[in-house]
Amino acid sequence: MGWSSWNSFSNTVNAQIVMEQAKAMAANGMKKAGYQYINIDEGWWLGKRDANGNIVVDEQAWPALAEGETAGDMGNIVRFIHGLGLKAGVYTDAGKDGCSMFPDLGPKYFGAGSEGHYEQDFLQFARWGFDYVKVDWCGGDKENLDPAVQYAEIARAIAKAEKATGHRLYLSICEWGKQSPWTWAPHVGGAPADVWRTSGDIVDPIVASGEHADRKAGFEKMLANFDQGIHPEAEHTGFYNDPDMMVIGMPALTDVQNWVHMSLWAMSGAPLLVGADLTKVTPVTLQILTNPDVVAVDQDALGLQAVKVAQQEQGVEVWSKPLAKPGERAVLLLNRTADAKEITAKWKDLGLAEAQAQVKDLWTGEILPSFGMYTVKVPPSDAVLVRVQGSEGESKVYRPEAAARAACRACDVRFSQVEAHGGWARVKITYANPDKAARYAELRVNGQSATAIAFPATGAAAGSVVVQVQLDRPDASNVLIFSADHDGMPAIESITVQ
Ligand code: GLA
Question: Which terminus of the chain, N or C, has fewer Cβ atoms within 10 Å?
Answer without folding.
Answer: C
